[in-house]
Design goal:
DNA polymerase, domain 1; disordered C terminus; 13% strand; TIM Barrel; globular
């Protein structure tokens, strides 16, 4: 169990044997995470489980995974299962085994959350069957283009094995959400993952790809996993990216996902090489457009409020419902981070006058 939990290092959730998913209402769901096996026929250049690499090997049968999941579930230690795997010969055989786990659990009355991370090239008929049992399922894109993908995942094709599966996943999610009598089960949105720093791709390339996947495949949640060099892999001598890069990519992706911005709106938050700085990109975006501010709290549109640092979607909607607003204390009670928002807002004609000084200090 320990070996297989650690073997999910390059999957969406990677902190210990328990990871987290988030429901449509934002509720955090704890999941037992494991691989079926860390023996893999794939040769992904960054992966500790790649074919031919010497390491401790382990496998669990579908029956064993079901038993372990039930044990944790009955103790209220988890609310579901996150299941991935090494490639067991090919994607079809691997998906069949993953489906067997989900079918076992559901037939035994399991009502918890099941998240399947599937292999590139998983056949459509198996995706359709998995959709009958799992709450969420999907394939990782890992990188931004077919050329890059062939470099780090040489066994698979980016367009046919990955992007086509994202399309099928999108269609199956929409179908399941429309079905009547699905038992009230949560149907998770399309998600995927990028390995950040394995190649030289810039942050602007990654964010443009995220934006494109949101448009084409209704991607809701991109995950970012920082590359760490693994001994006895082709990329063992490549450096790791700075730890904060992953955080800043998440923040930039939230501007697309939750704030209604597009990739082209973020052009001024990158350096000359297309990389983010270790600063909140929303703050950088606001500072690069002083002509937009201050916004009047009592008359600004939702779109304009969302551009203010310290005001998120929840706070912006609360402001609109509660107007007129007369003080910063009212904004703080609505969840506004007033220390960040103050230079960019006006309340009843009152504003911080030294905006340029604030921006220079930041």
């Amino acid at each position: 169990m320990k070996v297989l939990s650690e073997g999910t290092k390059y999957d969406s959730c990677n902190q210990g044997a328990v990871c987290h998913a988030f429901g449509p209402d934002g509720r955090c769901i704890q999941l037992y995470k494991t691989l079926l096996t860390n023996t893999c026929s794939g040769e992904c250049t960054y992966c500790p489980n790649r074919y031919g690499r010497q390491s401790a090997k382990a496998s669990l049968t579908p029956e064993e995974i079901a038993k372990i999941t039930w044990s944790f579930y009955r103790k209220n230690a988890i609310e579901g299962l996150f299941l991935s795997s090494g490639v067991m010969g090919d994607a079809e055989r691997t998906a069949e085994k993953q489906l067997e786990v989900a079918r076992l659990l559901r037939n035994q009355g399991f009502k918890g959350y099941i998240h399947m991370r599937l292999m590139p090239g998983t056949p459509l008929y198996l995706l359709e069957e998995i959709a009958d049992y799992a709450n969420k399922f999907g394939v990782n894109v890992e990188t931004t283009s077919s050329v890059n993908y062939s470099e780090i995942c040489p066994n698979f094709d980016y367009n046919s094995d990955v992007l086509q599966r994202l399309k099928w996943t999108r269609d199956l999610i929409n179908k399941k959400r429309k079905e009547v009598g699905y038992g009230g089960r949560i149907i998770g949105a399309n998600d995927t993952q990028f390995v950040v720093g394995a190649l030289s791709e810039s942050d602007s390339e990654i964010i443009r790809t995220v934006d494109d996947l949101m448009d084409r495949y209704e991607l809701r949640r991109p995950y970012f996993m920082s590359f760490n060099p693994v001994p006895s892999t082709p990329l063992e001598n490549n450096p790791s990216p700075p730890g904060w890069r992953e955080t800043r990519l998440y923040q930039a992706s939230y501007l697309l996902k939750d704030y209604g911005l597009k990739a082209f709106d973020l052009g001024q938050v990158y350096d000359d090489n297309g990389f983010l700085a270790d600063t909140d990109p929303k703050m950088l975006l606001a500072q690069s457009h002083p002509e937009r501010f201050p916004v009047n709290i009592n008359s600004a549109s939702l779109k304009d409020l969302l551009l203010v640092p310290g005001i998120g979607p929840v706070g912006a909607n609360r402001i609109i419902r509660s107007r007129p607003i007369s003080s910063e204390k009212e904004l703080m009670r609505m969840g506004v981070v007033i220390s960040r928002a103050r230079p960019f807002i006006e309340i009843n004609g009152n504003r911080q006058t030294n905006l340029s000084s604030f921006m220079e200090a930041s």
